[in-house]
Amino acid sequence: MPKILIVEDEKAISGVLESILSDELKDYEFVIAEDGLEGYKLIEKDDFALVISDIKMPKLNGTELLKQALQLKPEITFVMMSGHADIDTAIDSLKNGAYDFISKPIDINRLLTSVKNALDKEKLLAENQTLQTENKSLKKKVHKRFTMIGESPALKKIQDMIEKVAESDARVLITGPNGAGKELVAHALHSQSNRSKGPMIEVNCAAIPSELIESELFGHVKGSFTGAIKDKQGKFELANNGTIFLDEIGDMSLIAQAKVLRVLQESKVSPVGSDKSVRVDVRVLAATNKNMKEEIAASRFREDLYHRLSVIEIYVPPLDERKEDIRILIEHFAKVISEEHGNAMVSFSDEAIKDLENFSWTGNIRELRNVVERLIILGSNPVSAEDVANFVRK
After folding, report:
1. Contact at 8 Å (CB) between 227 and 69?
2. CB 166: neighbour CB atoms within 10 A?
3. Model confidence over 233-258: pLDDT tens digits?
4. What is the C-alpha to C-alpha distance for residues 56 and 277, in angstroms, rounded to an integer?
5. Are 119 and 49 contacting, i.e. CB atoms less than 8 angstroms apart?
6. What does the angle CA 168 – CA 174 – CA 180 come to, to the nearest 5 degrees?
7. In 3-state terms, what secondary structure has residue 279?
8. Nearest C-alpha neighbor of 79 from the set 209, 216, 201
9. pLDDT, tens digit, for every residue of 32-86?
10. Closest CA to 50 of 66, 64, 34, 61
11. Could you tell me which of 12, 80, 73 has the C-alpha nearest to residue 46?
12. Rounded to whole angstroms, how far apart are CA atoms 147 and 149?
């Protein structure tokens, strides 16, 4: 089982972190270190999928731990934690090689997002390597994992649009609310395209600090800044001959937007610290939950970049606009979740499904899946209307 190391000198905080994260990340084992020196000794002896470290600690502070650990194991991923007064120190940590930092007091949602993105980053690199050697088998896996479930007119309209534009290299902007399935559309476009044998690289633009966006997207050369201990390929270069998916593009800073626009215009990238350009052949898909015309009017998004990205625009409606798909989605999630838990198939009564169909799903498909999992764990079999009333709040 992969391990996550939490380095925190306050036992109350480390205990809360372990409790929250272990509920969300059941496939990981958690290890606690009470100071930086103990954390370093654990890193020497063992491999960790992720290290979550405070900055101010006795014996060895988080910044020094980060530097020494990366010298020992350059591939290790760090998420740093810092008090509000330590933002400058946290920025230095990012420049020294940390993936992200979280301000204290800790926002739980921000923490979960950061940790999951950090773990996804490691998985993505591994999947990209596998993709290049086991193309056919991985392609089948992508189809299964990212199947679009439903029979509503709204979903069929999206599927028809995907079929029409997938084989072209046209850039596509996917819009719609969070949790509605924009990622599924992006993967469907890639898997049905002529680039399906190439990599599909995902970038969560909202999760990358503005100070690191250029390095993440375009790469850097060794020594280009503090913490650049080896050459690193950027996401655009990793996506060469394939597809790059810029998720939450509306949250990208204006400085980063200008750099992405240049790449789209010139089809080449310049790694940080290098005077050489690397030509890339990449199809760009982007997604946002924002109203882009409002963002442009408010000078938060470049109009020229918007027009470059939205050659084709696909709107993914909220679940409340395709409620005829709810029954099919519930049955699908019930099967998948039952298999994941290693349990017998749990069914839902007609009354329970009708009650769920009458809910307002502000969190869309993501929220529905979470509710189905909750009802499978806490409810009866079949799940009843009474279970819905007891365990789901309207």
Report:
1. no
2. 18
3. 889 999 999 999 999 999 998 988 99
4. 40
5. yes
6. 130
7. strand
8. 209
9. 999 999 999 999 999 999 999 998 888 898 889 999 999 998 888 999 888 755 6
10. 66
11. 73
12. 6
Query: What residue type is 216 in one-letter code?
Result: E
CB–CB of 244/203 below 8 Å? yes
DSSP state of 50: E
CA 7 to mean position of chain CA atoms: 24
Collapsing DSSP to helix, strand or coil, 348 comes out as: strand
Phi and psi torsions of 200, nearest 5°: -115, 110
CB atoms within 10 A of CB 343: 12
Taking only the tens place, the pLDDT of each residue in 186-206 is 999 999 999 999 999 999 988
| Count of H-run helices and E-run strands, the chain | 17, 14
Q: What is the mean pLDDT of residues 93-112?
A: 84
**Cα separations (Å) of 378 from 44, 367, 384?**
42, 16, 11
Return the SS3 of 37. Answer: helix
Q: For the chain, what percentages of helix, strand and coil (3-state, to nearest 5) are there?
A: 50, 15, 35
β-pairing verdict for 200-204 and 78-83 = unpaired
Verdict on whether the full-model pTM lies above 0.70: no
Environment class of residue 119 by beta-carbon count within 10 Å: exposed (0-12), middle (13-18) or buried (19+)?
Answer: buried
Cα angle vertex 199, ends 195, 203, to 5°?
Answer: 115
Q: What is the DSSP letter of 149?
A: P
- Name residue, tokens 């491999």: 47
What are 213-223's pLDDT values in tens digits?
A: 888 898 888 87
- Closest to 189 (Cα-Cα) out of 143, 239, 126: 143
CA dist 326 and 319 (Å) reads 8
Query: Is the separation of the CB atoms in 324 and 155 below 8 Å?
Result: no
The total of other beta-carbon atoms located within 10 Å of residue 279's CB is 10
Q: For residue 275, which phi and psi values (nearest 5 degrees)?
A: -100, 10
Single-letter amino acid code for the residue at 313: E
DSSP state of 75: T
Domains and CATH numbers, the chain: 3-116 (3.40.50.2300), 134-317 (3.40.50.300), 320-391 (1.10.8.60)
